Amino acid sequence: MSPVHPERSRGATSLTELALLFLRLGTTAFGGPAAHVAMMQDEVVKRRRWMSEERFLDLVGATNLIPGPNSTELAIHIGFDRRRWAGLVVAGVSFIVPATLITALFGWAYVTFGTLPAVGWVLYGVKPVILAVVVQAIWALTPKAARDGWLRFLGAVAVVLSAVGVNELLVLFGAGFIAMIGRQPKGPAPKLAQIVPLAVPGVAVAAASQVTLSSLFLVFLKVGSVLFGSGYVLLAFLRADLVQRLGWLTEAQLIDAIAVGQITPGPVFTTATFIGYVLAGPGGALVATLGIFLPAFVFVALSGPLVPRIRRSAWAGAFLDGVNVASLALMAVVTFQLGAAALIDPWTLVLGFLSATMLVRFKTNSTWLVLGGAAAGGVLHLTGLAS
After folding, report:
1. Domain around 20
2. What does the pLDDT average to over 321-342?
């Protein structure tokens, strides 16, 4: 048996070490939150012995109790664990910055060359793959999120409400509170301090006919403040605000933005950087990125001391069950609605079906499938097989 290594003390970890590790992870962490968590576990538990497996799992669990991008929040938690407030900022910023710069570069290329046939045909092949990735995520999450009859019923109701246009925040938090009340868990009802970190109210965003930096910031601040679950739920929120309510993006542009978030490393939430650049140039990219990621730093800082009490509360657990199944419902509805923008001919149908099969049956890494979809789009264009 291999020897058990003691944890290194916090003082043994420098801010430079934190920065270099998370800069590298932010540059190479493809594959989504699950892959990011696995890479962090290998680095901070196995290689560097910064913490035990048990402590790492506690931090992973804590990220599921607050809104925002889970893998980014885990990086922030690790930084706080090693070097407190300075570590919190250094680890989080270092993980976000590489993906932000890469995504901003894609935004510049999209604005500059997006109408060129070559770029258009790359996205033509990527879009159906992205839909397949979302379908695979729904497939994987369903058994856990809708694990009993009560949660399946709530999920079905959430699908109907979302499909008829009920505000996504009402669907999410309504499901959470109904699940909490309907289950009537044993033990005392939670105090306000236990629920507030989970149900932070959204930031009001007034409808606007023109894009401004302040309105962009508020839109993405709201999303970063209330989005539970997978990064793919981002689709539902962005579609509701930017496509339906404000009219700043088309359905096709939203799919393109999510596609770019998939083919770049780091958090899927850097989709905000791409959208901000497309709508308002470099300044838009900056404020959108700040808006969507700022809540993650605040929630990690505020929720840390409360995590042990929240996790022990059966009431808070029931609330999260309802939120999670409603998140899955939003994903299902938006996937159906966006399918029309991606599946436009027999070739895109084939690409979507093959990608879904590879993901569900063979567990193929989504990064390779996205790159393969881009290549397929180019080949179909060059060979004249798709018109």
Report:
1. 10-91
2. 80
Residues 6+ apart with CB under 8 A from 98: 23, 26, 27, 265, 266
Yes or no: say if 239 and 247 are a contact pair by the CB < 8 Å rule: no
> Which residue, among 238, 190, 239, has the nearest Cα to 65 in the 3D structure?
190
Count of domains observed in the chain: 2
Q: Which of 327, 107, 126, 312 is nearest to 234 (CA)?
A: 327
What predicted TM-score, i.e. pTM, was given to this entire model?
0.68
Are 115 and 62 found together in one domain? no
How does residue 311 score in pLDDT terms, banded at 50, 70 and 90? low
272 domain-assigned: yes
Asked whether 310 and 128 are in contact (CB, 8 A), the reply is no
Give the burial string for 267-302 (b: 16+ CB within 10 Å, else e): bbbbbbbbbbbbbbeeebbbbbbbbbbbbbbebbee
* Three-class secondary structure of residue 203 per DSSP: coil
- Decide: helix, strand or coil at residue 206: coil
**Are 159 and 77 contained in the same domain?**
no
CA distance 340 to 197: 37
Residue 386 backbone dihedrals phi, psi, to 5 degrees: -120, 135
**What is the number of alpha carbons within 13 Å of residue 350 lying toward its C-beta?**
7
Q: Is the pLDDT of residue 32 over 50?
A: yes
- Out of 66, 91, 116, pick the residue that ends a domain: 91
Does 208 share its domain with 341? yes
C-alpha to C-alpha distances, 367 to 59, 95, 349, 356, nearest whole angstrom:
26, 18, 19, 13
Over residues 38-78, the pLDDT tens digits come to 788 888 988 888 888 777 877 877 776 678 888 899 999 99
SS3 content of the chain, % helix, strand, coil (to 5): 80, 0, 20
Which sign, positive or negative, has the C-alpha torsion 111, 116, 119, 122? positive
Sequence-distant (6+) residues with CB within 8 A of 283 are 213
